[in-house]
Amino acid sequence: MFLKHKVSGVALVAIPTAFLGLFFVYPLATIFRRGLGNSLPTDVLFDPGTLRIVWFTVWQATVSTALTLAAGMPLAWATARLAFRGRGLVRALVVVPFVLPTVVVATAFLALLPESMQRGIVPILLAHVFFNVAVVVRVVGGYWARLDPSLWDAAATLGASPGRRFRELTLPALRPALAAATALTFLFCFTSFGVIVILGGPRFATLEVDIYDLATQTFDLRAAAALSLLQLVAVAAIVAVSSRLEARAGSRLPIAVEQVAARKPRGWERPALVATLSFAALGFGLPLAALVQRSFATPHGAGLAFYRSIGDETPTLLVVPWRAVEYSLAYAAAATAIALVVGGLAAVAIAHRRSGRWLDTVVMLPLGASAVMLGYGFVIAFDTAPLDFRGTAWIVPVVQALVAAPFVVRIVAPALRGIDPRLREAAAVLGAPPARVRREIDVPLVLRPLGIAAGLAFAIALGEFGATVFLARSDRPTLPVAIFRFLERPGATNQGTAAALCVVLMAVTVLAVGAADRLTSRPGAF
Amino acid sequence: MLRVDDVRVAFDGVTALDGASLEAETGRTLAVLGPSGCGKTTLLRAIAGLQTVDSGRILLDGDNLTGVPVHRRGIGLMFQDNVLFPHRDVAGNIAFGLRVDRRPRHEIARRVQELLALVGLPGSATRAVQTLSGGEQQRVALGRALAREPRVLLLDEPLGSLDERLRERLLDDLRDLFARLQLTVVYVTHDVGEAFALGHAVAIMREGEVVQSTTPNDLWRRPADDWVARFLGMRNIRDDGDRCLVIPAEAVVVEPGDDAVVRTVERRGAVVWLRVALDDGRELDSVTTDSGHPRAGERVGVRIEETSTISVLKWKG
Q1: pLDDT per residue over B172-219, tens digit each?
Q2: Contact between chains at A526 and B128 (C-beta distance less than 8 A)
Q3: Residue among B72, B73, B92 whose CB faces A526 most closely
Q4: How many Cα atoms occupy the beta-carbon half-sphere of A291 within 13 Å?
Q5: Cβ contact (<8 Å) for A445 and B87?
Q6: Helices (H), A433-491
Q7: ipTM of this model?
Q8: DSSP 3-state percent helix, strand, coil across chain B (nearest 5)
Q9: Which residues of A touch B70 (CB under 8 A)?
Q10: Which residues on adjacent β-strands are paired with residue B58?
Q11: Distance CA B161, CA B155 (A)
């Protein structure tokens, strides 16, 4: 029994490690080795064009992050501190944009904005805010809800005005959460791809977009590799700085384990709440409403023509667009399964084994490495025997799983760690051998987080664009790839079909996340 | 009989149990009493098998349990704050051990009903454990621990998280239950009152060792040393060469006279505590049930019943 325990312990660490080694480290190493050889590409790195792209990447990420914080903080405050009808619904709805495919969001802003504003910096920033408000609301709001309000009451009795309380108590108290949300948002905007490609037009390129162009349009492997390396270093630096900031900001204020009960809004809070919620409703609702409206707005009045064209042959794709829905679902299902196995094992190793701690960092790296780099790495690493995987169907779910697995780990590992170890002890004292303890305690208690992780992984796989666009064969496009192809082509039919496909993709995404949530929320029966 | 024989446990070089030994008689309750950090919880975990011991033996009716894994020891354990399974209802918690033992379904159902009645929660079978009050949760935890008819029941400060009144009621119930079921019980607590109320015998722990194990009366009459006397709540302890002299507060009689002045008067329930300062500067505590006691500031006479004073070892800790 002891031996078996040891073997399973090794597998716990070995499987995620092997997966990451083969499908993450190896492709990236291949990019750098083949693209750069032994010399540093200083000419590429210090090229004025590169510097301009780096400047734009940093600049747009900074402004996007600032705007996201400004837009997200009121909502974080309202959902964390105030009790109002529909609070749970607001908290759930806020997450919807985050799980929407970038392609859908970008298309929604195309549908919303007048023609003159469709390509440029404004839609890019708006789309980034739209996406990442969820991060601020969930990360900061979740933390905010657990701050003990008696401290604020004490400050109030000592004569501190609301503004002063916010500056001197709230902001310092929220520092760890703010640091985390800022870093995450910055990272997402820094490596943003789908939004920039669709909304930026040719004049706006981030590092991520430039890598894509170099790799697919000009086939400049060396420059693409150089920029990938630059981006990886930048992302590593961002992660390092933010985790240092987070550690330094480590909470010095009492944090309740449970959420503190919110209270009814009073005084100025009431108009503030109304304003916040209306702003959120407009900001979230308008783009999506515009998208839906666009999908029905045929040249001959409102109708289903664009939806009907999903079932027709088209010169834009090699297959009937409808097939893209099938491929997307199949790929996403496979990717979810892989992500749950790899991420789940990694989570167990991280939560329960000393040897698994380092996985905590490693498994996050694919998030920072950017999808385009990953897809590109796959293309050049897996094109020769014995690793000629490019044409195989499973390579797409593998790369999607790589991007989804970090989220699985982030959800499941804390849940596992949060299980009171004495519950396992209590079960053991009652006669349950180790395997039974796992089955009776760990599995049921982690089922719900696992379901949430599955829904999120499925949504991320469905929406994955940056890597999939490299790897999906033209005769087997996913929905985001198909949408992108339609958007690339002019004409009302192409744009309208893209909008219709976006609505389909959005519906499938929301259904998947909702179903996973619903399926696993049933309380464990006796 | 449960015997713990010279058990040692260290965590990263810090000693938690330093050769602890004790005996718990079959069908009786042994209270293990000590301040926090003395190793009493570690001792309990070692008996349950949740803590591997570095050396020493644990014997139950002659069987050596030392190497037996926790799930095969047949010992019941009640944790400090109940640790109920949140994903199972009351019946599901109580039935857990029975299901593990693969008892037939109807027998499990019958036994659950029995235990619910026993712990005073009839009709609660299908309630979610989160909806129970603290006291009710502890009752479920007790039922769960008793379900498999353990050879020994271990309790780790089971009343620690409850309020005063609930505590007293549960204490009474526990005592009745232990007696009725003829259970062999090891009850860990830092509360002197609880230990004396429940224990047929009381074992005092200090720094990973059992320093004294005897009946409550004997413990009160002959504490092993001045530290034990102080821990039990005795006052009036003073150096007497290489030993210590304990003057029980009930042996300090306050009467009309002119030896001392009353410093403080404090009523605690049925008794009144007086602190008097003798003219030579010494202070003594006295306890009386007489409500005609003097008031603070009054001059009084003090007499010590010399036959009641106790000479104890001096602890050189």
Answers
A1: 999 999 999 999 999 999 999 999 999 999 999 999 999 999 999 999
A2: no
A3: B92
A4: 24
A5: yes
A6: 434-437, 443-463, 468-471, 479-488
A7: 0.86
A8: 30, 35, 35
A9: 425, 428-429
A10: B4
A11: 13
